Amino acid sequence: MNPLIELKNMTYQAQQKTILDIPSFEIYNGEFLGIMGPNGAGKSTLLKVLSFLEKPSSGEILYRGQTVLNGQAPMELRRRFSVALQQSLLLEGTVFQNIAIGLTLRKTPKPMIKEKVAHWLELFDISHLAKKNALYLSGGEAQRVNLARAMIVEPEILFLDEPFSALDFPTKIRLMEDFKRIMEETRTTAVFVSHDLMEIHYLTNRLSIIVNGQVKQSGPTPLVLEHPNASTQSFLNEWKKFLPALTGSSFKEEKVLKG
Ligand SMILES: Nc1ncnc2c1ncn2[C@@H]1O[C@H](COP(=O)(O)OP(=O)(O)O)[C@@H](O)[C@H]1O
Ligand SMILES: [Mg+2]
């Protein structure tokens, strides 16, 4: 199966520092790919490169097997993707207007906008907020609006950068449950950046761990969590202390071996 997006020999430099050095990376159709790693590892930068928001310093990006000229992804291509960030960046106006914005930009006919917004308000369980000022929502409500706004354009790939990180625990788990169901029903391809093992374990089916700007391990999420390699073990071990049930037997063996 051809990847939707592929990186080849990609590096990203800023201020004479190599932030990313990634010989190969793929996003496949239909997957929910997690990108996990410590603070400052380069996760957000990688997400921006993959979604054509940042231009790599060297290397190649392919979309469905075709090279995209560096920094010249056409608007038509960029519009196939949605990006949702930790900060919901909602605009002045109602919740309805915020969710409609992608369709308004695409000059969708008004009756269809109304119908689609109603549909996405309902899926995210925020129909009662439609007329509210988007700038006066709780964190959880704002993130629901943010995700509905990203999904309404039916993106080919949804890119997410720590969308749940600022939410309190009960709010987070309620939203993650709704979000997971929506993603399964719509079968949207997603790339999800997080530093949080619980979120990664719950949502993703494939995982890449990135440390110091390099991809240290990739594979099916349960397999990576169960069998970390020499480069990912110390990062994942931090989590093991608090979420032993999410990590596998190889962790325990390691602990016994080390005494
Ligand atoms: N434009 C930039 N100029 C200088 N340094 C940058 C720039 N963008 C990112 N960095 C640095 O690159 C590293 C990776 O950043 P980032 O991708 O935000 O990491 P993460 O999302 O994993 O926390 C950090 O050390 C950050 O300070
Ligand atoms: Mg980040």
UniProtKB/TrEMBL annotation:
One of its GO terms (molecular function) is ATP binding. Residues 5-237 form the ABC transporter domain. Pfam families: ABC_tran. Gene3D superfamilies: P-loop containing nucleotide triphosphate hydrolases. InterPro entries: AAA+_ATPase (IPR003593), ABC_SmlMolc_Importer (IPR050093), ABC_transporter-like_ATP-bd (IPR003439), ABC_transporter-like_CS (IPR017871), P-loop_NTPase (IPR027417). Keywords: ATP-binding, Nucleotide-binding, Transport. The keyword Transport applies. The keyword Transport applies. SMART domains: AAA. It comes from the Bacteria. PANTHER family: BICARBONATE TRANSPORT ATP-BINDING PROTEIN CMPC, SPERMIDINE/PUTRESCINE IMPORT ATP-BINDING PROTEIN POTA. This is ABC transporter. It comes from Neobacillus cucumis.
